[in-house]
Specification:
Blueprint (H helix, E strand, L loop, with lengths): L5 E5 L2 E9 L13 E7 L1 H11 L4 E7 L3 H9 L5 E7 L6 E7 L4 E6 L8 H7 L4 E7 L8 H12 L3 E6 L11 H4 L4 E2 L3 H8 L4 H10 L4 E5 L5 E4 L4 E4 L12 H14 L4 H15 L12 H7 L8
Parallel strand pairs: 1-4, 1-8, 2-6, 4-5, 8-9, 9-10, 10-11
Antiparallel strand pairs: 2-3, 6-7, 11-12, 12-13
Helix pairs in contact: 1-8, 3-4, 6-7, 8-9, 9-10
Length: about 300
C-alpha cells in the first residue's frame, strides 16, 4: 500500500466471546450459553478494521505469536484497505475471554501475551500517514509511560497527528498515560477511564481536565448517555444515537474510528464527534464484530452529515 492515512499501533487480541451469560455466574457449575465464538479483538486492530471498512487506507502495527490465535488474527486483517505489519515475537498471541450479558454489556478477562513486547521503536520504523493512533495503552508494558510520550512527540515533529486509546486498568497505573497527553491530539476514553485518569466525576469536568493536560480534542463517552467533548473552538454534549443494541463489543473502537475519519475529512470537531457516535452505534447493532458497518455511507446519514463523494 503506497498511500496511508492512518497508522494504528498497539494491541491485537484473539477474543473468545461467550454470549449470553446470566448473573450471578454459577461458580463451580455449568451454565448453558447461546454461542461461543472466536473473533479478532484489541482496540488497535478493531479501530484499523473500522477505518478500512469505511474506506480509509490504514496500516496496522501489532505483535503476534506463531500460534493458532495468531493465524486467526492474520486472516482477520486481510483487506484491500488494511496493511498489516505484524511484529512477530516468541510468545503466545494476546487473548481475552469476553462474557456478554443479557443487556449486551461485557466483562473481559485478558492475558497480555505478545503485546507486552511492542516497543516505540517497532512503531517508529513502520508508522506513516496523517494520524498515528495507539490503541491499548496500559496493557503495553514496553511502550507505556515515557516511551509512548516520546513516540507521540516524534510523530508530531514529523507532521503526524496523534490519537490515544486506553484499556481500563485493573492495576490502577493510570498515571502512565499522563506524559503522553501533552502530545495527544485526540483522546476518547470512556467515563470510567476518564474518571480514573483525571479524578473528576462528571464527564464535562473530565474533558476539561484532559484539555488542561494537553489533549487537543477530548471526548468522553458514556454509552446511552452520549458523549462530552472539549476542544479549542467549543465544548458540548452529543446525544447517543438510538439503535437496537445487540453487543457493545468494539463500539468504542468504531467510535474512535468515526472521529478520526471526520477529522481526516476536515469536519469541525462537533461534526467529527457526531460521526463517531454514529459509527459506534452501528457497531453495536450486531453480534458479529463490525458487520453493522457494511454500508460506509450509513454512518454519515445517521450523523446527519452529507455523504462524501468517493
Amino acid at each position: 500500500m503506497t498511500s496511508v492515512d492512518v497508522t494504528c499501533a498497539g494491541i491485537a487480541v484473539c477474543d473468545v466471546v461467550v454470549r449470553t451469560v446470566h448473573h450471578p455466574l454459577p461458580l463451580g457449575l455449568l451454565q448453558l450459553v447461546d454461542d461461543l465464538t472466536l473473533v479478532e479483538g484489541g482496540c488497535a486492530l478493531r479501530t484499523a478494521k473500522a477505518l478500512a471498512g469505511m474506506g480509509v487506507d490504514t496500516t496496522l502495527i501489532a505483535p503476534i505469536g506463531a500460534d493458532l490465535f495468531g493465524k486467526v488474527l492474520r486472516r482477520s486483517a486481510d483487506s484491500d484497505r488494511l496493511e498489516a505489519q505484524w511484529v512477530e515475537v516468541d510468545a503466545n498471541t494476546s487473548s481475552s475471554a469476553i462474557l456478554v450479558d443479557t443487556a449486551g454489556e461485557r466483562t473481559i478477562f485478558h492475558q497480555i501475551g505478545a503485546n507486552r513486547f511492542l516497543t516505540a521503536e517497532h512503531v517508529r520504523r513502520r508508522m506513516k500517514g496523517r494520524f498515528l493512533h495507539v490503541g491499548g495503552a496500559l496493557v503495553l508494558p514496553a511502550l507505556d509511560g515515557e516511551p509512548l510520550a516520546q513516540l507521540f512527540a516524534h510523530a508530531k515533529q514529523n507532521g503526524m497527528q496523534t490519537s490515544l486509546d486506553v484499556v481500563y486498568n485493573a492495576t490502577n497505573e493510570w498515571d502512565l498515560v499522563n506524559a503522553a497527553l501533552a502530545h495527544t491530539d485526540l483522546f476518547c476514553p470512556s467515563l470510567a477511564e476518564a474518571q480514573a485518569i483525571t479524578g473528576k466525576s462528571s464527564p464535562d469536568a473530565g474533558a476539561a481536565e484532559l484539555r488542561r493536560r494537553g489533549v487537543r480534542l477530548a471526548v468522553i463517552t458514556d454509552g446511552v448517555n452520549g458523549c462530552w467533548f472539549d476542544c479549542d473552538e467549543t465544548r458540548g454534549h452529543i446525544a447517543a444515537i438510538e439503535v437496537d443494541s445487540v453487543d457493545s463489543t468494539g463500539a468504542g473502537d468504531a467510535f474512535t474510528a468515526g472521529v478520526l475519519i471526520g477529522l481526516l475529512r476536515g469536519l469541525p470537531s462537533p461534526q467529527a464527534v457526531r460521526l463517531g457516535a454514529a459509527l459506534g452505534a452501528l457497531a453495536a447493532t450486531t453480534s458479529v464484530t463490525f458487520a453493522g458497518l457494511n454500508d460506509p455511507d450509513e454512518a454519515w446519514r445517521m450523523a446527519g452529515l452529507e455523504v462524501p463523494r468517493r
